[in-house]
Amino acid sequence: MSGFAHILAQSRKELIQFRRDKLSVRLAFLLPVMALLMYGFATRLEAKNIPIAIFNFDNSKLSREYIDRIFATTDFKPSLYTGSDITYPLDNEEAKASIVILPDFSRNVLSGKTAKIEILIDGSDINNARIIKNSFFALTYFFLTANHLYQPQTIIEPVSRIWFNPGRKESLFIVPGAIAVVSWIFPALLAAFALVREKEDGTILLVYTTSLKAYELILGKILAYFIVGFLEFTLVLLIAIVIFKLELIGNIFLFSLNSIFFILTGVAFGVLIGTRTNNQMAALQAVGPVGFLGNMLLSGFIYPVHNILYPISLLSYLVPSRYFIEALRNFFLRGDSISNHLGITLFLFCQSLFLIFVSIKNMQNMQLKDN
Question: What are phi and psi of 338, to 5 degrees?
Answer without folding.
Answer: -60, -40
